[in-house]
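Reposting from the mailing list since nobody answered there.

I have sequence plus structure tokens for a pair of proteins and want to know whether others read the tokens the same way I do. The first protein:
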Amino acid sequence: MNSHSSPATADDARAPEPARSVRASGRLTHWRTLDLVTCAFLGVAFGVAYWGWGLAYAVPSNAVSAGFPPLGALFNWPWLVAGIVGALIIRRPGAAVFTELLAAVVSALIGTQWGITTLVSGLVQGIGVELGFAVFGYQLFRWAPLLLGGFLGGALEAVYEWYSYWTDWDLGYKLVYLLLLGGSVAVFGSLLALGLTRALVTAGALSAFPPGQEARERSAV
């Protein structure tokens, strides 16, 4: 055996760094004008989309819930995507609530069958999503807070609907509805939010935000 083995280079010795979440720059409570404008843009865009989904969802929702009413929850998760996208992009406290509530306001102004109660849903949903990221101190923006925030947003909306729409259901129906709504938001809502965020990164629209920085760091490796 050769006793004079070649020394390891710095590149060989350096272990690969795990993927990390890029946090918002500066104080978390310090919102830039760009953050506010972007949240407003997202809220308006999602508000129009929410209004459109309100026109389309009834047929498939009624079809699956005819035999088992709680199954209608499986078609309600799109109404929480705005808050998740807002949190993923802005990464400051309040981004999920701001984006989700503004989307609800816009859809209500256009006209929905739920009227002013749409704003209550938007607030409740946004708070739930916000809590998922707050638990991690707004330091992590990967699957753990996405799943938790999505589930909490759906769960809080389900509880609100128990006392607003589903007052005649027994506890079993209500709990199944909560689990289905929370679970579908956590999985499908998170996947759609991630897909939309990555599409915006690819288009170069988020270069001034943490997701854009993450993409630059990955491409530099």
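The second protein, same order (residues first, tokens after):
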Amino acid sequence: MALQIENEYGAVIIQDEVLAKIAGMAATRCYGVVGMTTRKGKSGLASLLMGDSITKGVEISTENERITIDLHLMVEYGVNISVICNSIINNVKYSIESMSGFKVGKIRVHVEAARVD
């Protein structure tokens, strides 16, 4: 479902795919994040490497002009997951709200895997 802003000059429609790209890029810029992945059980590591991996692990839903974001990602082994998740939540929330003008209602971070070197 897309978000829409209307004024006397017309309307601006923001598709969920755009919000997913913003959220994915903001999340992958955080220290310790290896990349986005699909939900557990859905093609695993292969999904991290194929196609547009920035949006594969992002699920967007909107209700009453509030955005709910689910992020599925892989982290580096040995990092503090709690600290990384807080950083991801803050970065994604700031990016979405500043670029779209809409409020983020909820962000859920799902750590699906840890990469071991």
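Reply #1 (J.P.):
I read it the same way you do. The two ends are 39 Å apart (CA to CA).
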